[in-house]
Design goal:
By secondary structure, the protein is mainly alpha-helical. It has a domain of about 55 residues. About 85% of the residues lie in helices and about 0% in strands. It has three helices and no strands. The longest helix has 28 residues.
């Protein structure tokens, strides 16, 4: 699912950047950044899918409910630190 979105974003930015001109000395760092982003994005998606397949969402649901109640209490009481 990430490939079309990431590819489209890279293509969109590259067309704009090539049209404006790549600043001197930034070609290699830009390519390293794009490659690093692609690898880390792939790893994040792969890790999330693996986690979801092996574990349930119960701890996440409990965390979100507790956090939501805490936010509602803070908003309702007007509490500020």
């Amino acid at each position: 699912m990430m490939l079309p979105v990431t590819g489209g974003a890279v293509l969109f930015k590259m067309v704009k950047l090539v049209g404006d001109g790549i600043p001197d000395g930034l070609g290699v760092p830009m390519l390293v950044g794009v490659a690093t982003s692609a690898v880390s994005g792939f790893a994040a998606v792969w890790g999330t899918i693996r986690l979801v397949r092996r574990h349930s969402f119960t701890p996440f649901v409990i965390y979100r409910v507790v956090l939501g109640v805490a936010v509602l209490v803070i908003v309702a009481t007007g509490w500020r630190s």
